[in-house]
Each structure stands twice: as structure tokens, then as C-alpha cells.
Design brief:
244 residues, alpha/beta, 7 helices, 6 strands
Length: 244
């Protein structure tokens, strides 16, 4: 079996960077997306076997160039991780004090961006499913998608929409063999969390590397299940090209 082909948004910092590193450690071919050209170049040079793409998921006009570069670099796609996120207003604000533009940015980054990119890559994902490689979309969620936290309004609303959208995508594409996951990695020691909660006790926060291992394990289990259903001969104990 050829190596897994994975794309990650928000791949130069925090959880996204940890996911890039973890997937590469397991032998996957990885394309990642971020807005900063200098950071994309830096991570690409550090992580051999990755392909960096400069783009902004909140910008509609960036989506198709990103999708084309992903499939061209990887020769197809097995896993898409929609990880890039926006808090909306920073410092966090009450909904009544949130500017419309800040709310729109959260929705554009956390909902419309994943929707547009997933839609643009569905052909590649469906082809991977037909080939028996497995196809998984992981939308990174949050407990704010379920619980109503004061001052987390823009972020919480957008993550709730992403979570529900994941369920609908999953229902609609199950017959094609494309699996959708919506997973909350927990509170992590990342630049984004520091921006949201500057005075947080970092000692109680999860390391992004730990969260990345958990999420990649979940992706691996989903792919194993898809391959097992397609071929009963597959024993489900390992994914070729990966090491734990």
C-alpha cells in the first residue's frame, strides 16, 4: 500500500504543526496550508517530505488554488484535516460587543473555509475511497461547540456549525466511503489558547503533540474500518506505510 496522503490547514503552529510532524513520523506524505509565506517556507525546510501551501481559508478566492496544489503535490488525497481556526475578536468579547466583521471572520475561517475546501476536494477523496485507500475528513472541534461559554460567542457558534456540518457530510457521503470525524482535542498549550486566555496555567494544558497523536490514532482507526469493510482480508491491525 502506498503512503497515506494527508492535507492539514493551519499547519505552521500549535496543533496543526504537531499534526504535520506526527503524520510525517508515521510515514504519510503531507501538504499543509497557512497564511504566512515565511512560516510555510520554514516548516517545509524543516519537515522533509512535506509540501507547504500559502493561502487563507477565509478567502473564497484562495480555496481552489489551495485544493489544486494539494492534489498536485500529493497525487490525490486520503485525509483532510480542517484545523485552521479563528477566535473572532481578541481579546474575547461578549456577543453584544462583537463587531460584525469579527463574527464574519470566525464564520469564514471556521465554517465556510472547511466547507469550501472539503467540497473542492471531494472528488479526490471519493476517488481514494473507490481505490480502497480510505478517505477521512477530520474537522477539529471544541467543547465550545457544545457548551455556551460567555465571551466565546463567535468561536463557539462557528464551531457548533462546523460540528453539525460534519454530521451532515457524514450522512450524505457514507455510501461513497468518505468518513467524517468531528473531534475535540481538549485545551492545549498553543499560541491560539494563549491569545484567548493569556493568564491560563500552562501546566494543566495538554501538549499539542499528545493531542496530535490522539487525533492521528483516530484517523488511523477510521481508515482501518473503511478498508476492512471494503476488504475482509484486511486484518485492521496496522496501516501500511505507518509506524506507531
Amino acid at each position: 500500500m502506498n503512503p497515506l496522503r494527508a492535507a492539514i490547514t493551519g499547519g505552521t503552529s500549535g496543533l496543526g504543526l504537531a499534526l504535520v510532524r506526527e503524520l510525517r513520523r508515521r510515514g504519510a506524505r503531507v501538504a499543509f496550508v497557512a497564511r504566512s509565506a515565511s512560516r510555510v517556507d520554514q516548516i517545509t525546510s524543516e519537515q522533509v517530505g512535506t509540501h507547504g501551501i500559502v493561502g487563507d481559508l477565509a478567502r473564497k478566492e484562495d480555496i481552489h488554488p489551495i485544493a489544486l496544489q494539494i492534489t498536485a503535490a500529493l497525487g490525490g488525497l486520503d485525509v483532510l484535516v480542517n484545523n485552521a481556526s479563528s477566535l473572532g475578536p481578541t481579546p474575547l468579547a461578549l456577543l453584544a460587543d462583537t463587531d460584525c466583521e469579527q463574527f464574519e471572520l470566525a464564520l469564514a475561517t471556521n465554517v465556510l473555509g472547511p466547507f469550501r475546501l472539503t467540497k473542492a476536494l471531494l472528488g479526490a477523496l471519493s476517488a481514494s475511497a473507490r481505490e480502497g485507500r480510505g478517505a477521512v475528513v477530520l474537522n477539529v472541534s471544541s467543547d465550545a461547540a457544545i457548551n455556551a461559554y460567555a465571551q466565546w460567542g463567535a468561536y463557539g457558534v462557528s464551531k457548533a456549525a462546523l460540528r453539525h456540518m460534519s454530521g451532515i457530510w457524514g450522512e450524505e457521503l457514507a455510501a461513497e466511503g468518505v468518513r467524517f470525524l468531528s473531534l475535540d482535542p481538549g485545551d492545549m498549550d498553543t499560541p491560539m489558547h494563549a491569545l484567548a486566555v493569556p493568564d491560563a496555567d500552562r501546566s494543566v494544558l495538554k501538549c499539542p503533540e499528545v493531542a496530535a497523536r490522539e487525533l492521528v490514532d483516530a484517523i488511523g482507526s477510521a481508515i482501518s474500518g473503511l478498508r476492512l469493510r471494503r476488504s475482509r482480508a484486511f486484518n485492521g491491525t496496522a496501516i501500511a506505510g505507518w509506524t506507531s
